[in-house]
Amino acid sequence: MKTTVLLGALTLPGAAAQGGAPFLAPLPQVRTPAASAAVPGEVQPVAPGARPAEALPRLGLTPAVPELERLEYRGNGFIEVAHGVVLLPAGNQSLARRRALALEVVSRALAARPALSEVDVSVYDRATYGGFGGPLPLFTASVPRARLAEFRTYALGQSAYDRVYEGGAPATTPPTLAAQVREDALTFFGSASERLRQSLTQSVSQSRGGARDGLLFRGPTNRRVAALTFDDAPHPLYEPLLLDLVRRAGVRATLFVIGRNAVAYPYFVRDMALQGHEVGNHTYHHVRLPGLSPAQVQAELAQANAAISAVTGRPVRYFRPPGGDYSPLTLQVARQEGLTTTFWTDDPGDFANPGDAVVESRLVSHLRPGGIVLLHDNAPEAIDVLREFLRVARERGVALTTVGDLVVPR
C-alpha cells in the first residue's frame, strides 16, 4: 500500500468572490482505506457529523400487497413521484409474476393518491435483497400516470413497453475494499514524488482553469458559466423529480452515473441524454478506487462506460471518483479509458443533511464563473433547494451547464 500524503489548500489569484469569500481549492485529506466485509455500494460510507435524512412519507394500500416492502413518495413543488420496493420469495419469480406485481402496485398507488404523476417499482429477490446499492433488482419499471393503460397492456404480455428492466444482467464481482471517508474531501493516495507532481498539476489547473493532463479541478473563468453536476445517479424516486426541475429551468447538467444503476434503470439514463444532459462515469459499483488492483480499477471504469454507452449510444467523456479518492493508478486508467477525471469547487454537503437553509446558503455564496457545483442525485435537500438555486444563478447571470460545455463551449 502506498502512503497517503496531504496536498495543501491553494488560494487562487483574483479570489475575491461575490460576498467577499475567497475562492479556496478543495482540500485533500489524509485517509487510509479500510477493509470491509460488506459488498461495496451496499452500505455507503456516511460522512462524520452527517444527520439522517427525514423519513419519506409512505403510502399504504388496503388490502395490503404482501410482497410490497414499502411504497414511498416525494414531490419537488411541481410533481409527486412514488417508488415501491417489492421483495419476491423464491419459487415464483417468473417474468409474468414480476410484471403482475408491478402492475398491481402502480395501478393501486395511482388510484390511492391522485396527486402522483408517476410510480416507479423495483422488484428484488427477497433472499438476497441488500438495499438500493446491493444486488441488482430482478425487474424495474417507470410508469407515468398517462402511460398506465400502456403499461397494463405490457404487463398482460400483449405489447412492448420501453420503461422497464427485465433482469438478466451478467453478474459482476465487485472489489472488496471500501473507505469510510467524507464525501466532501479530495484524497490523493501516492508517494512523495507523486504528491509533488500532483500538487503542481492541481495548482496550475486551479489557477488557470480547464482540463490539464486528464484532470479537471475548475473551469475557465473568462465566461459567466459554471457546471452543475450530480453524483450517484440514477435513483428511481429522485431522478424524475430532478430531471423535472432542471427541465423547467431550461438548464443542462452533468450526471455522474453508477454503472449498476444504469443497468437497472436504463430509461432514466436515456431520459438524461434525450433532455440534453451529459452522462458521466461514477464507477460500476460506486467503490473507492485507491488500493484496488489495476485490473479492478480498469473493470470499474470500463464496465460503467459500457453500461452507459449501451443506453445513450454515445462515448463517456468525464469521470468522477467516488468520495473524491484517487491515485496515480486511478488517473492512468481513466486516461486509458478516454476519461477526464473531474472534481469540484463547491460541495454544499447535501449528502450530510445539514438542513435546506445551510445547503442553499453554501450554494449561493460559492456560485461563480468557472465553478463546478457538486450535488447528489439521491439527496433530499438537493431537491429542496435546487429550484431556488437555479433562480439565483439566473439572476446573477451565471449560466449553469454541463462539464463539457464549461470546458469546451458549443
TrEMBL record:
It comes from the Bacteria. Keywords: Hydrolase, Metal-binding, Signal. One of its GO terms (molecular function) is hydrolase activity. CDD domains: CE4_NodB_like_6s_7s. SUPFAM superfamilies: Glycoside hydrolase/deacetylase. Its EC number is 3.-.-.-. Residues 1-17 form the signal peptide. Residues 224-401 form the NodB homology domain. PROSITE patterns: NODB (PS51677). It is an enzyme of class 3 (hydrolase). It holds the Pfam family Polysacc_deac_1. InterPro entries: Glyco_hydro/deAcase_b/a-brl (IPR011330), NODB_dom (IPR002509), Polysacc_deacetylase_ArnD (IPR050248). This is Polysaccharide deacetylase family protein. It comes from Deinococcus petrolearius.
